[in-house]
Write a structure and sequence with these properties.
InterPro entries: Methyltransf_11, SAM-dependent_MTases_sf. One of its GO terms (biological process) is methylation. This protein has 258 residues and is of the alpha/beta class. It is built from eleven helices and nine strands. The strands form two sheets. It has a seven-stranded mixed sheet, sandwiched between helices. Strands 6-7 form a two-stranded antiparallel sheet. Strand 4, helix 7 (127-136) and strand 5 (138-149) form a beta-alpha-beta unit. The longest helix is centred in the first third of the chain and has 21 residues, at 15-35. The protein starts with a helix and ends with a strand.
Amino acid sequence: MLPAVAHWPAGSGGLRDTIRQEIVARQLDEQISGRYPVGQRLRILDAGMGQGTQALRLARAGHTVTGLEADPDLLKAARESLATEPAGIRERVRLIEADGRETGVHFLPGSFDVVLCHGVLMYADEPDALLAGLARMLAPGGLLSLVVRNADALAMRPGLAGDWTGALAGFDSDVYTDDHGVKVRADRLDALTSTLAGIAAPLHAWYGVRVFTDGIPAEAGLPAAEELDRLLAAEDRAGRTEPYRRVAALLHLCGVRG
């Protein structure tokens, strides 16, 4: 198993989730290393952290991380994963049961160098307000990292599966059904680019995530290490390369606070 993948928390999901977490991690690390000196301990907020996969990874890298999660079951899983870490890492992580819209209640503006909002926007009733609040948490020059479902690629999964009715519906839709059977929203690159400009965190870079592997069953397990290495290398390259990144299942957008 790849060293990075070996550190994902137990129960973090099958192959598809592992691909998402690993590819987003590589892309995020690239953006962080391009903005901050090596070794600088950053203040990071993970809004809607889930079970804490990225939060714990960043804490292991030496950063101070605050995780917000409204779902008590996911928060419990994050706390259990954190409890298995060495004391030095546990001391760098603060977990709060709260919604990403409540940042103004807990923190002062400009309190963080990096803010993550991964897989959250699709469930938000007022996404623009959520993003504006998160942007206010950034110090000048800070990085806002968003992972969203790509509305411009909603026809891809059903089309590749031979579901022509679903593919035709996907062309003009901004709604899809997630793995839990819940209908949620997807976002378009152009619209989010405008939104980021409007909240003073204009788009700096963007990537695709899961270009080739979105159709893998959610329960599929990991392949052998060498095969996983090749798979991740292909996904990593596709997520940075035109035209492949435009048809990725997910988009990873990085804005920088002006």
